[in-house]
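Hi support team,

I'm opening this ticket because the web form for multi-chain structure prediction keeps timing out on my end. I have pasted the exact lines I submitted so you can reproduce it. The total is 484 residues across two entries, so I didn't expect it to be a heavy job. Is there a limit I'm missing, or should I split the entries? Thanks in advance, R.K.
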Amino acid sequence: MNFDFSIIFKYLPFLLQGAGLTIELAVLGIAFGILIGLVAALLKISHTPLRYIAHFYIWLIRGTPLLVQLFLIYFGLPQLGIKLSAFASSVLGLGINSGAYLAEVFRGGIEAIPKGQTEASLSLGMGKFLTMRRIIFPQALRISIPSLGNQFIISLKDSSLCSVITMSELLQTSQRFASVTFGSLEFYTTAAVLYLLMTTVISALLHSLEWRLSKQTRTRGE
Amino acid sequence: MKLAHMPEKSIINFHSFPEKSMIAVNGLVKDFGKNRVIDGIDATVSTGEVVVLIGASGSGKSTFLRCLNGLETLTAGEIMIDGVPLERRSSNLKQIRRQVGMVFQQFNLFPHLTVLENIIEAPIHVLRQEKSDAIRVAQELLSKVGLYDKQSCYPGTLSGGQGQRVAIARALAMHPKIMLFDEPTSALDPELVGEVLTVMKQLAEDGMTMVVVTHEMSFAREVADRVIFIDEGRIVEEGSPVQIFGSPQEKRTKAFLSRLSH
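Hello R.K., no limit was hit. The queue was backed up. Here is the completed structure from your submission:
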């Protein structure tokens, strides 16, 4: 047996810096994903031919690995004259990837709202758009929060794939020091612990958000 | 002047309806797929009149009501609300719906908004009222239905009777000319029916034009100016409550009423 975790302390600031980039990628990626997912969900439930675009997008993205998508964006697109930085490629990749899953999450949330809500809103003279924005979507979002949190956690972990398109996030930083110091066990264990810490904090935050929002809609006796 | 030159097509002539008619329905037909739910209904409702629709479930009375504010598309026929024809155009629909309040069996309050927010939502976003004005009106309405102290509650914390009274206040906040009630007490526990009917009676006394689908025959007897019995998508018989409940003429009306009393 041959390990010495004390070497970690010397490199910890660099690892934390990598973790910072991981969070940045995950947050920007999921934010972009929420935007795309929302548009795709609305297209999918619209009774216009545009819904086929949403179908196609979801089918394409869910059916191919994120790593392949990242390679195509970072290494493939330059051949078409579209050169994106590693950071932009990563955010774009994580965004369109999570967006495909979030589209289904939002669609499910919207469709779970009883039809009577729409009817009541329309009966008050509110238009379709206003009804969606003020009545349906706020309720659908609440239902979607657990799945949204789930996707956030997945995206945070998936951001480790961005290491192969030269992003110095947590995994790549760990890899670099692991090979220099021959301390694979120490550095990858530390990386795992840091990922676990981040996902635990996210779950806790989402849990409290969910609880706070449900306070309003909770019924008597609960 | 030769009247013979008038085109034959203008058989549907709304001018033939009484001047005061708030609702005018002409040759209404509604199909759900192959199923004909409303099979040719003509009716008018005068300003300030309270009309109660009775009939077995599946007779088409709720569908008829839902056609009046465009929640259902018409297969054939025409509807006029206060002289304005109901069309599919969304701008027309919105205009009509502002004037036609609707109360549902399941209340359909917005669960993510407080009682007060439920009521001011449409006045602020549709009528563009100032928030403070909308709140003042909402508070007045809540006092009227006896729920002033429930303003900041969420609908999930209300009893059924309270919820339905909030729903009535919400519809009234748009200052509608007509109120439609679709079985407003059917989802309530028996002991809570009274408080909702009291509010509706008050509304009728205030002169609101009302069309009510209900199984509460006592309400029909006491409050209705006219009772319409619908069966298989058609008006079988209509008249004053005394007429309909006291001496129904049609066999089907008698059969329906005798089933109720058992």
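A quick check on our side: Chain B touches chain A at residues 69, 71, 90, 93-95, 97-98, 100-102, 104, 106, 108-112, 114, 121-122, 125-127, 154, 156-157, 167, 170-171, 174 (CB under 8 Å). Let us know if the file doesn't open in your viewer.
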